[in-house]
Amino acid sequence: MSKEEQAHELIREKIQAAEVRNNLQSLRAENSQLRAVIDFQKAQYKEMEAEYRD
């Protein structure tokens, strides 16, 4: 592989790594949002459960 080909390969790898990092950040943000929704729904369920018992 020539130096130019090696440079292009390195650039492609760096771009791929950046895309993976961006995807991971997006998934982490989505995960946080989903956890917030779940926590909210759990709280609502507990309220409804308490009302039912009263």
User: What is the N-to-C succession of helices and strands?
Assistant: H
Helix content: over 70%
Q: If helices are DSSP runs of H or I spanning 4 or more residues, what is the number of helices? A: 1
Q: What does the average pLDDT come to? A: 97
**DSSP, total strands:** 0
Largest sheet: none
Any low-confidence stretches, pLDDT <50, length ≥5? Answer: none
Return the structural class: mainly alpha
* DSSP strand content: under 5%
Structural features, described:
This protein has 54 residues and is mostly helical. The protein has one domain. It contains one helix and no strands. It is rod-shaped, with a radius of gyration of 23 Å. The mean pLDDT is 97. Keywords: Coiled coil. Residues 1-51 form a coiled coil.
Question: How would you summarize this macromolecular structure in one to three sentences?
Answer:
The chain is mainly α and 54 residues long. The chain has 1 helix and no strands. The protein has one domain.
Structure keywords:
1 helix, 0% strand, coiled coil, mainly alpha
